[in-house]
Amino acid sequence: MTRKHGISPEMEHYLCMVDMLGRANKLEEALAMAKEMPFQATETVWTTVLGACKKWGNVEIGKAAFQAFVDVGGSDAAAYTLMANLSSFKLAGWPRLPWIVERKSPFKVGEFYVSSTGWRWNPFVTTMRIVLLLVSILIAAASRSNDRVLRDLAREEQQRSLPGIKLGMSRLDKWGSLHSFSSLTRSFLDELLHEVVTHDFARARALASRLVSSNSPNRSSSDHRHLAEEEVEHDLAQTPVSFTNGGVYYSTITLGSPPKDFSLVMDTGSDLTWVRCDPCSPDCSSTFDRLASNTYKALTCADDVCSYLRHTDCSSSSSSASSGCQYSYGYGDGSFTQGDLSVDTLKMAGAASDELEEFPGFVFGCGSLLKGLISGEVGILALSPGSLSFPSQIGEKYGNKFSYCLLRQTAQNSLKKSPMVFGEAAVELKEPGSGKLQELQYTPIGESSIYYTVRLDGISVGNQRLDLSPSAFLNGQDKPTIFDSGTTLTMLPPGVCDSIKQSLASMVSGAEFVAIKGLDACFRVPPSSGQGLPDITFHFNGGADFVTRPSNYVIDLGSLQCLIFVPTNEVSIFGNLQQQDFFVLHDMDNRRIGFKETDCGSLRA
Fold first, then answer.
1. 491-543 pLDDT per residue, tens
2. Under 8 Å between Cβ of 308 and 228
3. Which of 121, 148, 183 is the last residue of a domain?
4. Which DSSP symbol is given to 117?
5. Domain span at residue 62?
6. Does residue 147 sit within a domain?
7. How far apart are the first and last CA of the chain?
């Protein structure tokens, strides 16, 4: 220090070294430095050594440090208290200490009387100290025993827990929360709403087309297996995700060896999970590098799983058994993806722990060509009932069911993720804090092999049930309601939308309905009315009531309130805005959908 920095060490430097050695449990070195420093160690130095001995329970070195403290004429009562407490580490040394401390006048420190003749015990204080020490030992032993019991119970609970795996979900709004647009300019607002409605209508048309095709009487039962990958029209393969609408939900999967994470759009209307692959055209910043994964394999036309794709190049005259099995999908908005049907190792966290589960041979699409709006996405997590969908493949091991809880986009939830669980563990909804199992309401899933279809029996606005028969929701055809995560708004037959508007108008005094671009069910409520909006209950087949709060069916535009219910003659769709803050279970093993209102932000992802 002197040679390198030209600084002569002072008492403070030695004191710092003694303190650091003591904190590191190098007590002998600390004692030696205190004795050998070129100055006479002060009482502060010896108190520091004594404090370290108290921390580490070293009575012998503590005795030496305390004797040195007394020898320099130390008078700090803290040192006496430290030594008194330190002596309790060795019960065998009680009731007396074998060494003498000389003082000119007696004074009391802790449980000792210090005098010129040595230590004298206060019997009452000593007895109480022994009792308290024994009590603390018993409490510590009981605590350790309880900890072991709790660990054993937790281990048993984990072993008893239902099998499954989980993903975290997050939500992305293109321009913020879809429930509050009051801060946006009118032109910006018009652009957003127009885009939301346009894409939801395109999606509804595609869903309706495939639904009608899948129910065709000319189609054999064996053909239904292939519908997961069928093109219904030239540019409508699987249903279009509203890639640029106001809000979509993402989940991250881990794929390949070495593993790599991909954040995919979750969609209950898509049949094949795909990720953008390398090489990728025209521009792909986040890709799956098939050459970098030593467990990747591209499938050929000879692989049985390739037959699950209805539209492939394998049926052409130029293909052979060794030809690559390629998929190609077009979307209602004009987007397009094409690539190789492939397999690789998937990794996901277990539902009962964070340990990763491996799934070799997971079938997915390796997209090498992306065009249109879809090119802005990394890929799709396909959640439909189709044969190659994510839950169908996972279901072979854990059970064909999954649950999610869609976060409402608020400032509090902006950095949160909510869980999506696959397998038997998906059925459990536990109350935060108490862990009590919650009961769900269930409605049957229809016979569709490509969508989660349900039957609506009626709607109530407040306590008033609307005069609507179950057939009113079928759009004049046998098209049930689709429970869908990829559609933003809720699409209903025009007559149903009119009945909801009329009922609200009769309940909310002074409400004036107006039409704006994209939405025709907007209204102004006079501030003087002082009235709140009622709940709207959707009555599903099987007696399940989905109670929708105003926050789930109204878009706040500041001066206007707009309903998320949009009239359509295509097919009724229960959209994702209406599902926010609901735990939703898709149980294909028992062909039912369950739900319960829940604070999704409180669930552990």
1. 999 999 999 998 988 887 777 777 776 677 888 766 555 467 899 999 999 99
2. yes
3. 121
4. T
5. 2-121
6. no
7. 53
Side-chain half-sphere CA neighbours of 317 within 13 A: 0
Alpha carbon of 298 to those of 47, 346, 365, 498, 562: distances in Å? 72, 15, 9, 52, 48
Together in a domain, 173 and 268: yes
**Distance, CA of 225 to CA of 215 (rounded, Å):** 13
587 a catalytic residue: no
- For the record, the structure tokens of 415 come out as 């950095």
What is the tens place of the pLDDT at every residue in 294-314? 999 999 998 999 988 866 777
DSSP letter at 99? Answer: S
**Same domain assignment for residues 100 and 175:** no
Stretch 568-593: mean pLDDT, rounded?
Answer: 93
The structure tokens listed for 379 are: 């890929």
Give the per-residue pLDDT at 351: 63
Is residue 267 among the annotated active site residues? yes
Cα 221 from Cα 241, distance rounded (Å): 27
The helix (run of H) or strand (run of E) holding residue 46 is: helix 43-56
346 and 230 inside one domain: yes
Total domains present in the chain: 2
% of the chain exceeding 70 in pLDDT: 68
**Cβ neighbours of residue 17 closer than 8 Å, sequence gap 6 or more:** 33
Same domain for 430 and 318, yes or no, is yes
pLDDT for 136 beyond 90: no
103, 128 Cβ separation under 8 angstroms: no
The catalytically annotated residue of 267, 333, 344, 581 is 267
Q: Which residue has the higher pLDDT, 123 or 267?
A: 267
pLDDT at 183: 47
**Per-residue confidence at 78, pLDDT binned at 50, 70, 90?**
confident
pLDDT given for residue 104 in this prediction: 39
Which is the catalytic residue, given 200, 340, 484, 581? 484
Whole-angstrom distance, CA of residue 316 vs CA of residue 435:
56
